[in-house]
Amino acid sequence: MAILIKNGRVITADSDSICDILTEGETIAAIGRNLPAPADAQVIDATGKLVLPGGIDPHVHLDMPFMGTFSSDTHETGTRAALHGGTTTVIDFVLQKQGHSLREALTEWQGRATGTAVGDYSFHMAVTDFNPGTREEIKDMVAEGITSFKTFMAYKGALMIDDAQMVGLMQEVRKHGGLVTAHATNGDLIDTLIAQHRAAGQLTPRYHYLSQPEVTEAEASGRFADIANYTGVNAYIVHLTCEGALNQVRRATERNQRVFVETCIQYLLLDASLYGEDFEGAKWVMSPPLREPKDQATLWAGINQGLVQVVGTDHCPFRWEQKQMGRDDFSKIPNGHPAIEHRMELLFSEGVMKGRISPQRFVEVTSTNAAKIFGMFPRKGTISIGADADLVLIDPKKKHTISAATHHMNVDYSAYEGHELTGKITTVLLRGQVAVDAGETKVGRGYGQFIKRGKVSF
Ligand code: DUC
Ligand code: ZN
Ligand code: ZN
Ligand code: ZN
User: Fold this and answer.
1) Which ipTM was obtained for this model?
2) Which domains, ranges and CATH numbers included, belong to the chain?
3) What pLDDT, in 10s, does the model give residues 132-162?
4) Average pLDDT of 236-247?
5) Residue list, ligand 1 pocket, CB within 6 Å
6) What angle is formed at CA 110 by the lines to CA 84 and CA 145, rounded to 5 degrees?
7) Which residues are recorded with the post-translational modification N6-carboxylysine (predicted)?
8) Which of 72, 186, 286 to mutate to test the pocket of ligand 1 (most atoms within 8 A of CB)?
């Protein structure tokens, strides 16, 4: 089966030209002007549209047991929604249970994702209990194509590791050529502030935000960078939100250390004014919380300075009824918000169409950089001969409005309800198949494949 995409403006991280793309089977077979259509080819006219590499969201939590419930998108519903928004590959988090092995956790996640995912997926391994047994399993995970290891510097008692475990993990991961990532916030400091607010009867969602001030993130980001520098491991900070934390990364670059940085779409576009006096703010209770306009400005600048390489989502949706678990106590609100479906269109509209970032920068931060950092390049993350035919067509002029009434995520509210966007994704290909066209899903449950990953190639 071949598909010929004609006359699109084809954009990669290092090129921008009007041309045709021919796919053959699952991959790209030819790129050029006036390519002839093979007899069996489906022809798609992309005149006036942008053609981009399929999006990669390296930070999603699907069907994840967390804070006494499960995130509400399964691997099926979450990857389907992702496809509608041009994200063809996601990297989901496997969570080791403290006192248990990495293998047990991996088997559990494989059980939920295998044969159900609609879009392509991979896994990070979250190491929540680093001990002599876990140490032995690191090489096994790398052999499985799981080359990135997530750490939590917060959520004590469930997910957090201490600095002793962090050093040990980094040393082991370095030996095997992997990458260590961190949810870099100071868990002890946050837990103290939470306890103080609860003791004072300050229980609304706004106190979630006030329990995680900038210092909690800046301190942990600096500590993570320092320990990574000492061990020499490849390091990546997930969901970085604020100026203080990015300044720690800037400081690391001054000693010629490279620390990769991901921010998430919400930290660029939303701010803490959403945490009002009532419970409505629970929609945006996530960790870290939304920040200030000055932090948004720092993050946009960080993208253009090359300090922030990736824009993900930390997609971790909970239905409104699940959010009610924290109706009387902000610390019990399941942390997370839905975004997997709208990352690309939001960033395109607010970033590219408003002139904050170039189309090529857009491709870098939504796809190419994640493919390189997480060991999937050039199979994923670019448009080149032999690469997977994962392609996104955007009509840059088409306007639309985000609403829970029309989204595909399994959650009954939208964090971006009523946001008006310019630029609509019209067609998405995944491995040479039309996966989404004009709002309709064209591939089914189980079409998504597990993507084995290699080493950093950034
Ligand atoms: N933050 C969230 O908001 N949800 C999932 C985990 C996390 O770190
Ligand atoms: Zn080893
Ligand atoms: Zn996190
Ligand atoms: Zn997360």
Assistant:
1) 0.93
2) 2-52+384-397+421-441 (2.30.40.10), 54-373 (3.20.20.140)
3) 999 999 999 999 999 999 999 999 999 999 9
4) 99
5) 61, 183, 286-287, 314, 316, 335-336
6) 90
7) 150
8) 286
